[in-house]
Amino acid sequence: MWDRAAETLPRAEREALQLERLRAQVERARRVPFYRDILNHRELGPHSIRSLDDVRRLPFTTKDDMRRQHPLGLLAVPRKELARIHGSSGTTGKPTFVGYTAGDLQIWSDLCARFLVAGGLRPEYTAQVAFGYGLFTGGFGLHYGIEKVGAAVIPVAAGNTRRQLEIMRDLDPEVLICTPSYALTIADTAREMGLEPRALPIRIGHFGGEPWTEDMRREIEEQLDIQAFNNYGLSEIIGPGVSGECMARTGMHIQEDHFLVECLDPETLEPVPEGEPGELVITALTREAMPMIRYRTRDIARLYRDPCPCGRTTLRMSRVTGRTDDMLIIRGVNVFPSQIEEALLRVEGTTPHYLIEVSRPGTLDEVHVKVEIHPEIFSDRMDRMQALCERISREIQTVAGIRAHVDLVEPRSIERFVGKAKRVLDKRGLTD
């Protein structure tokens, strides 16, 4: 363990620490006009927080709130105290910026060190970071976490996959850090170069930045002959480091001494029963620059409190199964792209490379799923291809509850992404 005292703290002591830090964070939030106005209107302050359940009396913060406070209206410190500014890509609207003090950066690197060590990183290892560097939080957060552990970093950044593989062969890193979809792109490109992906030097992969399934984990591990670990974070809260898996891989351990996590029904905003899926709502307990009270992540996951074999005593979360704003409603059925991926990988011969196209040519929605299949499966026999399409379609109906038209496409014909993979093309807005 990186920080045994923090990671094995008895629950009663951890909750007392959370309560103390929540009160302090509410006091810090009062320096932000956005929060101060709401707290004053509700007559809330640190004195109002008598138990952790009182967090529910505090206001939510949303992505739209951040956009309305653009660029840095949620700062709780003077601009001169900022040590760094990161931000979102802005692909779904105006980018949102997040500020960090020097203290925030120290905490961030420590939290990344925790989950990296939990997932097998050692000081004598070398890690190749194939995340983007820049405004995106992934590259820098993990970079400094690796250095905190004492391991060496190869800051290759995202893209130029052939170059990634050349560097990997030259420098023999034991650890690969990127999105899960890019890990499969690396395996595909290795085969194109005449390399055996399983012979690459990497032993461990730490993957995040996009939702992925257990089936995709198995695919990555099989193709690259590694252990693949999941981690979770988001720039609005701190970046990677909110949670990560240990060697037992029974869920991602949440760093509860720094984050208070709720799991709520996204419609009623009431807590869901333990173990049931809900939207994660996170309060950053120790952020100095931007307190972030009850941030609605839009990410759907489950929370678990049962003991983990590793000995850590923290709350754990499942992998993210989807986002409320990524959820598709198809003829009244709620569908997440991850369900389509799960269905595809249940059928032998398919790959995790797919594209979901939704249209409304008349009054009803139609779904077409383009699926890449392995080269050895591709055939000019129409009956074989039709039978495979039908198997995939049945599996999608079983998992997601919808009927979809399946189009088999040749390997490498669907666009690859070095960052978050784009899985859905929703054309319904063009015909409404």
TrEMBL record:
<comment type="pathway">
    <text>Aromatic compound metabolism; phenylacetate degradation.</text>
</comment>
<comment type="similarity">
    <text>Belongs to the phenylacetyl-CoA ligase family.</text>
</comment>
<protein>
    <recommendedName>
        <fullName>Phenylacetate-coenzyme A ligase</fullName>
        <ecNumber>6.2.1.30</ecNumber>
    </recommendedName>
</protein>
<dbReference type="InterPro" id="IPR011880">
    <property type="entry name" value="PA_CoA_ligase"/>
</dbReference>
<dbReference type="InterPro" id="IPR000873">
    <property type="entry name" value="AMP-dep_synth/lig_dom"/>
</dbReference>
<dbReference type="InterPro" id="IPR028154">
    <property type="entry name" value="AMP-dep_Lig_C"/>
</dbReference>
<dbReference type="InterPro" id="IPR042099">
    <property type="entry name" value="ANL_N_sf"/>
</dbReference>
<comment type="function">
    <text>Catalyzes the activation of phenylacetic acid (PA) to phenylacetyl-CoA (PA-CoA).</text>
</comment>
<dbReference type="Pfam" id="PF14535">
    <property type="entry name" value="AMP-binding_C_2"/>
</dbReference>
<feature type="domain" description="AMP-dependent ligase C-terminal">
    <location>
        <begin position="332"/>
        <end position="428"/>
    </location>
</feature>
<dbReference type="GO" id="GO:0000166">
    <property type="term" value="F:nucleotide binding"/>
</dbReference>
<feature type="domain" description="AMP-dependent synthetase/ligase">
    <location>
        <begin position="78"/>
        <end position="282"/>
    </location>
</feature>
<keyword id="KW-0436">Ligase</keyword>
<comment type="subunit">
    <text>Monomer.</text>
</comment>
<dbReference type="InterPro" id="IPR045851">
    <property type="entry name" value="AMP-bd_C_sf"/>
</dbReference>
<dbReference type="GO" id="GO:0010124">
    <property type="term" value="P:phenylacetate catabolic process"/>
</dbReference>
<dbReference type="Pfam" id="PF00501">
    <property type="entry name" value="AMP-binding"/>
</dbReference>
<dbReference type="InterPro" id="IPR051414">
    <property type="entry name" value="Adenylate-forming_Reductase"/>
</dbReference>
<keyword id="KW-0547">Nucleotide-binding</keyword>
<dbReference type="GO" id="GO:0047475">
    <property type="term" value="F:phenylacetate-CoA ligase activity"/>
</dbReference>
